[in-house]
Amino acid sequence: MTIIRSAGLAAAIAIAGAPAAAQTPEQFYKGKQIELAIGYPPAGSNDVYARLLTRHLGKHIPGNPTIVPQNRPGAGSFLAHAYVYGVAPKDGTVIGIGAPTAPLDEKLGTQGVRFKTAELNWIGRIDSLVNIVFLWHTSPVKTFADAQKMESKLSGTGVGSTVSIYPTVTNHVLGTKFKLIMGYKGSNEAQLAVERGEAEGHSTSWTAVKVAHPDWRPDKKISIIVQYALKKHPELPDVPTVVELARNAEQRQILSAVMNATEIGTAFFTAPGVPQDRIDALRRAFDATVKDPEFLAEAARTKLTVNPMPGEELQKLVAEVAAISPEILEKVRAAYAQPK
């Protein structure tokens, strides 16, 4: 009798546990909130893209959860990466966005990296991220050649951010004389510093400039002297890419390795260990969002470009960083070195 009762109890427990084990993404997400951790302060291009996504993604996720944006700036977005990687729940209720250079920073062993980018589950990319250097109209530096001859002061943010990385790499590889004035809380504040005369220019995404100050380029208030990309942005056909400015094959290899980050772009990820069916649900929801007419209309109104990449392709792109040869990696490391 005891054996029969024990067997019956075990069966009852198994049956009671079955629904939880077989919970569908729709059942899991129904009535829940998803945090979108933004590794930057408000008003920059990544923040604008992330908040655009929060307004449309939830209706495409099974169960229609609410998406809540949360700015978690610090260390060039490394804090947000570390939060999603090591602190956030491993259940698909936290999504993040951070610096596209993070996979290369991890490979280089950059200080402050406490995450493994290939172990994150990549959801999708809204757009490639083309950065630029612009100089205010009062600066004597009007061209890239001028920047190689004369010092120009650029407002900067965190050390791990592309805002500081790209000009530093250009200084080391192509001999520009950019001097970074660090400490601004975000790209929006750094742009205002240029307008106030605290710096001559700034390096940030083209999207951040045209969204915050759409009149600057048409009114010739700024000179854009270089774009950090493998391919020219369609809106900047007359501005050279940094790779085009390379003077030999070695420089092209180094700059191309760094510029791969532009293809990662405005990319979103969730934590390691999230169940595969929820990862698939988030990826398919992302794919549907970037084709949603309402999403695209809002992106167009705010002058945001949309050039999406699915999560599966993004996952492969992040993993490819590990394929950089040790020789080129050492040269990239030297180019990354921040001034003392």
Helix and strand arrangement:
Blueprint: H1 2-21, H2 25-29, E1 33-38, H3 45-54, E2 66-71, H4 78-87, E3 94-97, H5 102-108, E4 121-125, E5 131-136, H6 144-149, E6 152-155, H7 162-174, E7 178-181, H8 187-195, E8 201-205, H9 206-212, E9 222-228, H10 249-264, E10 267-270, H11 276-289, H12 293-301, E11 309-310, H13 311-320, H14 326-336
Parallel strand pairs: 1-2, 1-3, 6-7, 6-8
Antiparallel strand pairs: 3-10, 4-10, 4-11, 5-8, 5-9
Structure description:
The protein has 340 residues and is an alpha/beta fold. The protein has two domains: 25-127 and 265-323, Bordetella uptake gene, domain 1 (D-Maltodextrin-Binding Protein, domain 2, 3-Layer(aba) Sandwich); 131-261, D-Maltodextrin-Binding Protein, domain 2, CATH 3.40.190.10. The protein has helices at residues 2-21, 25-29, 45-54, 78-87, 102-108, 144-149, 162-174, 187-195, 206-212, 249-264, 276-289, 293-301, 311-320, 326-336, and strands at 33-38, 66-71, 94-97, 121-125, 131-136, 152-155, 178-181, 201-205, 222-228, 267-270, 309-310. The strands form two sheets. A six-stranded mixed sheet has the order 2-1-3-10-4-11, with helices on both faces. The chain has a five-stranded mixed sheet with strand order 7-6-8-5-9. Helix 10 (249-264) packs across helix 14 (326-336). The longest helix has 20 residues, at 2-21. The N and C termini lie far apart (79 Å). The model is unreliable at 1-20 (pLDDT under 50).
